[in-house]
Amino acid sequence: MAYEYDLVILGGGTGGYVAAIRSAQLGLKTAIVENEKIGGTCLHKGCIPSKALLRSAEVFSLTKKSEEFGVFTTGIELNFKKVQERKTGIIEQLYKGVQYLMKQGKIDIYHGFGRILGPSIFSPMPGTISVEMANGSENEMLIPKNIIIATGSRPSSLPGIEIDGNYVMTSDDAIEMEKLPQSITIIGGGVIGIEWASMLADFGVNVTVIEYADQIIPNEDEDIIKELTRLLRKKGINIVTNAKVLSESIEIKEKQVQINAEIKGQIQTFLAEKILVSVGRKPNSDNIGLQNTEIEMNTNGAIKVNSTFQTKESHIYAIGDVIGGLQLAHVASHEGIKAVEHIAGFNPVSMVYENVPKCIYSSPEVASVGFTEKEAMEKGFKVKIGKFPFKAVGKALVVGDAEGFVKIVADEKTNDILGIQMIGPHVTDLISEAGLARVLDATPWEVGNTIHPHPTLSEAIGEAALAVDGLSIHI
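The line above is the sequence of Dihydrolipoyl dehydrogenase; the predicted structure tokens follow.
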């Protein structure tokens, strides 16, 4: 039997289920096809579980220096089983919430693997979806007027490195570890690799990060990366850059795994209990029936879309990690909303990716929006800079975390804020003010004259804005 829908969404991750909720709000008959659990990677394998683990690592690290706050403790012990139980509890609570939202929106869920078929007796256009049901029952046939592909991405590896889930892992495997290793080699110094490095170091693991480029987090502001590198090394993380991993050298020896890397023409050997491969993610665009359509893809497997997220098949849209670009949950959500509104006949404002806040939940945290100083100069802007350190902010000293700073890049000609970068305590929460400033084309004067309550960490933003024109008060 075939079922008709206004919209069928392939993938129930953050982008997919948010798109489904917006679709239901607009009165469209909606279904999601999801092979695993609603919530996708973000809820079950990525954003939420990793941040739960990071929080436990932060508490453990803070407890070890509690005497600085006049709190004396004895017998500090890490129970990693309890850490994992807390993580699982958070996931389950949020999962129930998403399931409730699906029920509330009367959104049909098909638990299985969906594939797009070509023209058939059901439809003269490609787009009928065959769902291979997870429970083994007969395939379901869905006939949608429109489709959104929101199938997300999965961890990449390097040629020659076999992921066994034990000695050699991806982040999907690491999130389920039952026991912490004593040592780990992380291949890749991008966002995911650095978050894991920070977390594991705070848990007491001996961590080495091997990065091919000349710095970790290559796309962030240079001043931010210098500070991040310094602070990560300060907590004992060995960061090795300009290193080409020799995949063929990987070898398991006496319950440890060894790999070599070429660094400035010299071969260096790294030995640890585990290797975490963190070299990016690749789109889940294979085996979903794209060959039955006119949809085009990039060389990396990302689906090509226009500004309204339509593929070459105008009734088939794609959002999130599967289209490449910024692989962030909040980006996928907003792309999904805009795609649905376009389907519903609205004219949504196009995404401005330069206004998307980007966060790294390491310790210290990093957050940014807009252009870095280097990017702005490469685009031809004549820039002026304001910086303000957290060590001059009373609340940062009260919190006991005064490392880092806020940096604002402004256009000397128009005075518009081009970018804001932060490193330090709770900057992943503070960045939303910077995001609003970008959306409103705010100037440093406007941000600097916004009253920031005292004592708060947000004062660093106001002071950095004043510093752009040499007007900072507290430094």
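Note on the example: The chain is about 30% helix and 25% strand. The first strand starts at residue 2 and ends at 10.
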